[in-house]
Amino acid sequence: RWTLALGQVQRLQPGCGGRWLVAQQGRLWLTRTGGGAAREADVWLRGGERLWLAPGSDWLVEGGAPGSAFV
After folding, report:
1. Which pLDDT score is estimated for 69?
2. Per-residue DSSP letters for 23-66?
3. Residue 63 CB neighbour total at 10 angstroms
4. What's the DSSP call for residue 6?
5. What is the pLDDT of residues 14-26, one digit of tens each?
6. Is pTM, for the whole model, over 0.85?
7. Please, are residues 68 and 9 in contact by the beta-carbon 8 Å criterion?
8. 7 DSSP assignment
9. In sequence order, which residues have a C-beta less than 8 Å from that of residue 18 and are 6 or more positions away?
10. To the nearest 10°, the Cα dihedral for 34, 57, 47, 5?
11. Confidence at residue 41, expressed as pLDDT on a 0 to 100 scale
C-alpha cells in the first residue's frame, strides 16, 4: 500500500506481467509516460476504482487529494 500527499508523484513500472492498480481512498491522477500509439489519456481514479497497467508500461501516479492511497 502506498499513500500519496496532494500533489506527490510516484512512478510505476508494472514489469513484464502487468498489474492492477486499485485506488483505496482519495483520488489518483495517472498519466502513461512515453510516446507513440501506446500513450493514453490521463485517468482519474477514486477510492474503490481500479486500472489495469499493461506489461512494460510506465506510469506517473499523483495524489489528487490528501491521503490518497493505492495498492
Report:
1. 87
2. EEESEEEEEE-S-GGG----EEEETT-EEEE-TT--EEEEESST
3. 22
4. B
5. 888 999 999 999 9
6. no
7. no
8. T
9. 52, 53, 54, 55, 57
10. -60
11. 76
Contact 28, 4 (CB under 8 A): yes
In angstroms, how far is CA 69 from the centroid of its own chain? 10
Rounded Cα distance between 54 and 17, Å, is: 8
Edge-first strand order for the sheet with 2-4 is 2-4, 68-70, 19-25, 50-53
With beta carbons less than 8 A apart as the criterion, state whether 17 and 54 touch.
no
pLDDT, tens digit, 9 for 90 and up, residues 4-60: 999 999 999 888 899 999 999 999 999 998 755 555 679 999 999 999 999 989 999
